[in-house]
Amino acid sequence: MTDTPAALREAHHADVSGGWLRPAVFGAMDGLVTNIALIAGVGGGGVSPRSVVLTGTAGLVAGAISMGLGEYTSVRSANEQVAAEVAKERRELERHPEAEARELADAWVARGLPRDLATQVAEAVRANPEEALRVHVREELGVDPDDQPSPWAAAISSFICFSIGALVPLLPYLLGFTSLWLALGVGGVGLFLAGAIVARFTYRAWWSSGLRQLLLGALAAGATYLIGALIGVGGGIG
Length: 238
Known about the structure:
It comes from Micromonospora maritima. By secondary structure, the protein is mainly alpha-helical.
């Protein structure tokens, strides 16, 4: 079987600019850790299973809304900042095209390109205003003005994934079980699986990524359980 070079294959890189993967991963992990920690805290305080469900459900709804709104605002603000910088660069190209071309050539020379070749390419780019704008923005800002993440994609993926993550440790209670250990165990399995799934996108070892997330969640749950046990209405795990 012939090994086709990656450069000759379409989509040989993952989509890293769509704006959905980071908020989806962050939302799922945050939902899991937040509700595992909440359930551990109130459960450690000795409240009733009904109160645990109420707390976990409130945490799920409030957290999902907060995550969705936060991601939308964050990504939209970043996009607006990029748009403002692009507009600034457009004005500079219109007012001082020669200086901008020299700046572009200097940047390429600093990377090792011969001065004559860098100047020649910069002048060729300058002849196409829209392409010149894209090249200058990429070189100076490190972003692609035509490929910005969607705030709606970030908000929706974060909202959905937080909700799913936060629901996992609540499932045993919703199914009629009343054991806090069982809920925390299910949450731990969810953390490990979420970490293992993330490894699919990052090419880390799946077990290493899963154990990392499990450890972080266990630290959060342990801290809140101890606090709940110290200041709660009762003691012990149901």
